[in-house]
Amino acid sequence: DPSINNPFIILDKLYHYSIGEISESHSYLNDLTWASALSLMEQKQIESDGHIKRTREYVNAIAREFNCNSRFIQDLHRASPLHDLGKIILPDDILCKPAITSHKELSILKTHTTKGAEAINSIIKKYKITKGYLVTAYEIALYHHENWDGTGYFGLSGNDIPLAARIFRLADVYDTLRSKKPYKSRLSHKEATQIIFDGDKKTSSEHFDPKLLETFKNMSSIFEKIGDNILVCDYWEASKKQLDSEL
Fold first, then answer.
1. Which of 21, 133, 203, 247 could cysteine-pair with 78, CB 3.0–4.6 Å?
2. Which own/partner contact pairs does 23-31 have at CB distance under 8 Å and 24+ positions apart?
């Protein structure tokens, strides 16, 4: 099916289906959207080795420790798996390449942020959505490669970067450091955290929100257990229960 390469068609079909199901059952079936998108990404081999599931757990954990409200944590839970949605549309010769070796290839790779955000924004506009997980997904998809010091893809810096994207940036970098790639070996938790705080050729502590970095420092052992597949921190369920009690 050629539509598998078109995130606009994919999201429109998934969200339209979800809306129908939600009105019928009055439950949070929006999870269908990210679950289906995850399946499509795995078919395209965009993300592997549990990256999407781990980063979702990381953002849930750090958002909870950062005292974010329950609704925001729920939105993060649903939104984070869509961060690389735009990679569906990238050429396979770029997507499957072990390492980017030219400025042209890097420019093409960077478009996964704008393409993914455009796909999500098309649904936001079509259904006149003003809040919720798709708005959060748009922010993460577009800005998850921005750095606190302004050295990211588009040069956004500080609090101009949406909080959801700042949280995901930290989770994404940590998971990348701890994952085996064609161009690198898997690092230990200690090695990964040392790079995040002390830096290396690609990473600097100035890339991250200082307050989030302090939160990460105080609860990095939770990240370690998630990364080692020892712990599943279901902060989303805890937040859902808390939100239900508040309503």
1. 133
2. 28/240, 30/78, 30/133, 31/78
Residue 162 tokens, joined:
């949406």
Smallest CA-to-CA distance from 14 within 25, 27, 4, 24 is with: 4
SS3 (DSSP) at 57: helix
Q: How many CB atoms lie within 10 A of CB 46?
A: 21
Burial class from Cβ neighbours inside 10 Å (0-12, 13-18, 19+) for residue 175 reads buried
The helix, strand and coil proportions of the chain, stated in percent and rounded to the nearest 5, come to 70, 0, 30
pTM (predicted TM-score): 0.86
pLDDT digits (tens, 9 = 90+) for 153-173: 999 999 999 999 999 999 999
Q: How far apart are CA 158 and CA 161, in angstroms?
A: 6
* Both tokens assigned to 224: 């370690």
